[in-house]
Design a protein that fits this description.
mainly beta, Jelly Rolls, single chain, about 80 residues, 6-stranded antiparallel β-sheet
Amino acid sequence: MRLHWTDQPYVWHVNDGKEVFVVLDGAVDMHYRTNDTEKVQRLEAGDIMAAEAGDEHVAHPVGEARILVVEKKGSV
């Protein structure tokens, strides 16, 4: 579990296990790809999103955001 307080976008990545994002404060645009198509979902404070193992995704905070990230220990 990690708590991020950031206004910087993450990098595109794929996890080897499930990853859960909980937006505690602010907003985050979660970009993800399915069937080579990029989609974006706006997450507001209180919203939760899970990325399954193998899902390509990247989080882009909208301004400053506080995000709780839960993933398995040693996740890549």
